[in-house]
Amino acid sequence: MTEKNYNPDMHENKDVNVQKAAQKIVVPKVKVDEAKTEETKKEAIKVEAPKKDFAQVNINGAEIKTKVAMAICKFIKHKKIEDSIKYLEQVAIGKKAMPMKGEIPHRKGDMMSGRYPKNASNFFIMALKSLASNAVQHGVENPVVVEAVANFAPRPFARWGRWQRKRTHLKLIAKSKMEKKAVQKTEKKK
Fold first, then answer.
1. Are 92 and 125 in contact (CB under 8 A)?
2. Domain at 54-189, CATH class
């Protein structure tokens, strides 16, 4: 700075301006009635989010094969969440096979053919645990997987554009076991 433009009180002036601005801002004091605050707290506790009669999990772009995901969805449909998780844990270990159709080798047990999809079963275990926690949050008792859908997702290219990755969209919906039976009875009457 040149000597002509230099003002030693310049910094002090800024502080004074800030202090004047702070004095202009007046915060109004509001008297708070303690009884009213307790009533509003009680009302806030009473007012909750509306409970749903179902729990849902949507997963976009899961890194699993769609064919395997469709087989797992077909298997877990109309089963309890806990039973599905237990079976999928056995599949991930390699103790039990997941039934699949197509040119797949035969396996021991009640099925014709099957495989041991470790990645997909671990992913579904995570999704089913999330579905179970959603069911608890929404108050769904005895949750059963009513809808399990796997669809193709956009498949990004891998390095150098030679390969495409596997991607799948998943949608899982669980309802209470009692509601499922009531819905089936009404459908039969029609």
1. yes
2. alpha beta
Reported as half-sphere exposure (CB side, CA atoms, 13 A), residue 56 has a value of: 7
Residue 104: how many CB atoms within 10 A of its CB? 16
Q: What is the DSSP secondary-structure string of 86-115?
A: HHHHHHHHTSSPEE--SS--B-SSS-SBEE
Residues 6+ apart with CB under 8 A from 23: none
Residue pair 176/55 in contact (Cβ under 8 Å)? The answer is no
Q: Decide which of 21 and 131 is more confident.
A: 131
Residue-wise pLDDT tens digits, 28-86: 555 555 555 666 655 655 555 566 789 999 999 999 999 999 999 999 999 999 999 99
Q: What percent of the chain has pLDDT over 90?
A: 46
CA distance 109 to 107: 6
- Residues near 166 by Cβ (< 8 Å), separated by ≥ 6? 63, 64, 65, 66, 155
Taking the C-alpha atoms of residue 8 and residue 19, their distance in angstroms, rounded to an integer, is 19
